[in-house]
TrEMBL record:
Keyword check for Repressor: no
Domain of life: Bacteria
Gene Ontology molecular functions: 4 iron, 4 sulfur cluster binding; metal ion binding; oxidoreductase activity
Keywords noted in UniProt: 4Fe-4S, Iron, Iron-sulfur, Metal-binding, Oxidoreductase
Gene3D superfamilies xref list: Alpha-helical ferredoxin (1.10.1060.10), FAD/NAD(P)-binding domain (3.50.50.60)
Pfam families: Fer4_20, Pyr_redox_2
UniProt-recorded name of the protein: Glutamate synthase (NADPH) small subunit
Annotated FAD/NAD(P)-binding domain residues: 151-457
Residue intervals of the Dihydroprymidine dehydrogenase domain: 25-136
Keyword Signal attached: no
């Protein structure tokens, strides 16, 4: 009888891939975790309990077949594990790196609930697909047959790329329009290399290009090309622009030099990593080197900013967040990494104003958590007389993102939006009120996770194929 390869969680402890020392990782933008060795990946995958109701799978937005590919990894059947993994996920190696597993699959692992420490799902997922690339198991995109229909996708971020992948594999002619000079969107310019090295993203963009997807870059829809032109050129259109309008700071002095948007700061840093010339970085305007940096916000973007500032050689880095640690929206794993690297967190603190122009200090207001709001979350309240001034040469606004006013920017008054400015679209299909126009990702959900954008892109692509097939059937009658 074959030996049971699974259920090792009782005898084998949770063990993440080796994490580089904080001192070493402060000096570069490389990823902080090493790769699993084959034996370690098998050992950790074998901790899975193979439970009858896999909460890891049900809490994954893509409903990845996690227990199946963990079992195959434990049995040494890695190519099959990869094939199962990529059936539900367009970019598993990216999700393995940047998904907040502590809030999704791993946070709902049954053995975690029983006190044994969760299975290291994200690390195994990353290992499986990295190995697949190394071994040549990732096959080129080769449609069985070509279709005459074409789809235009506005936005080369995770949602747009996921839709492009599904549609191109089905033989549809796909053109992706993006305002940046490289594909990837947020994956390329918003997320730092220490979480997601850029060759991982560029490899996927190149796969799509080699598979026949056309990229029209440095193309700002509404300026360089109109939405109507794109719509007239294609049988269907996918809006996958993401949300890039930054929420602003208020208070006296909020317009001073030295107060910058997180997206500008992170984009400049990532461009430098590509070897681009970035005048704002070279002038020091978007560089933290030698500066006292204050980042305002408590989400994952704020964590990206504080950890980038450390690597740029900031004199000090402080993060202000108006609630406490337990109530912050960012990943607790990221907070721990930031603290190890030297970031100071000032919980229950908010900016009240700014001194100097260029900025020289932030006037900080101490807060406390009061009564719950309509969502049940405690609302922060000011503590009178508790203000103090924190020195700052660079203040980074990381308060989240809102949608741009696309109906106005694109002169499309009939493009329906919600009261939050996001595009109104059908759940699961992404179909908008405009014929043949679909929308996916953050421009529908508001600022959300990469994995949800991938899910939306895949779902919408399937709906577009149904739409094209229906149109083809009508034309044939």
């Amino acid at each position: 009888m074959a030996k049971q390869p699974m259920l090792k969680f009782v005898t084998v402890g949770r063990d993440m891939p080796e994490k580089r020392s904080a001192e070493a990782r402060r000096r570069d933008f490389h990823e902080i975790y090493a790769e699993y060795a084959d034996t370690k990946a098998k050992e950790q995958a074998a901790r899975c309990s193979q439970c009858g109701v896999p909460y890891c799978q049900s809490h994954c937005p893509l409903h990845n077949n996690i227990p199946d590919w963990l079992r195959l990894t434990a049995e040494g059947r890695l190519k099959e594990a990869y094939e199962i993994s990529q059936m539900t996920n367009t970019f598993p190696e990216i999700c393995g790196r940047i998904c907040p597993q502590d809030r999704l699959c791993e946070g709902n692992c049954v053995i975690e609930q029983s006190g044994h420490g969760t299975v290291t799902i994200g690390a195994v997922e990353k290992y499986i697909t990295d190995t697949a690339w190394d071994e040549g198991w990732v096959e080129p995109i080769k449609p069985v047959r070509e279709r005459v229909e074409s789809v235009g996708i506005i936005g080369a971020g995770p949602g747009g790329l996921a839709a492009a992948d599904v549609l191109r594999r089905a033989g549809v002619q796909v053109t992706v329009y993006d305002r940046y000079d490289r594909g990837g969107g947020l994956l390329t310019y918003g997320i730092p290399g220490f979480k997601l090295e850029k060759d991982v993203v560029m490899r996927r963009v190149e796969q799509l290009e080699q598979g026949g997807v056309e990229f029209v870059l440095n193309c700002d829809v509404g300026t360089d090309i109109s939405f109507d032109e794109i719509r007239n050129k294609h049988n269907a259109v996918v809006i996958a622009t993401g949300v890039y309008k930054s929420r602003d700071l208020e208070g006296p002095g909020a317009g001073a030099d030295g107060i910058v948007r997180a997206i500008d700061y992170l984009t400049a840093s990532n461009r430098v990593g590509f070897g681009d010339q970035v005048p704002e970085f070279e002038s020091g305007a978007l560089s933290a080197e030698g500066k006292q940096v204050v980042v305002v916000g408590g989400g994952d973007t704020a964590m990206d900013c504080v950890r980038t500032a450390i690597r740029q050689g900031a004199k000090s880095v402080t993060c202000l967040y108006r609630r406490d640690r337990d109530n912050m929206p960012g990943s607790q794993r990221e907070v721990a990494n930031a603290e190890e690297e030297g970031v100071v967190f000032e919980w229950l603190s908010a900016p009240k104003g700014f001194l100097g122009d260029p900025v020289s200090a932030v006037r900080v207001q101490r807060m406390r958590l009061g009564a719950p709001d309509a969502t049940g979350r405690q609302s922060p309240e000011s503590i009178e007389g508790s203000e103090y001034d924190a020195p700052a040469d660079l203040v980074i606004k990381a308060l989240g993102f809102e949608p741009e006013d696309l109906p106005t920017l694109w002169n499309q008054k009939e493009l329906e939006v919600t009261r939050w400015g996001t595009i109104k679209a059908e759940f699961t299909t992404g179909q908008t009120a405009m014929e043949g126009v679909f929308a996916v990702g953050d421009i529908v959900r508001g600022a959300s996770l990469v994995v949800w954008a991938i899910r939306d892109g895949r779902d919408s692509a399937a709906a577009i194929l149904d739409y094209l097939n229906a149109a083809q059937a009508v034309a044939a009658e």
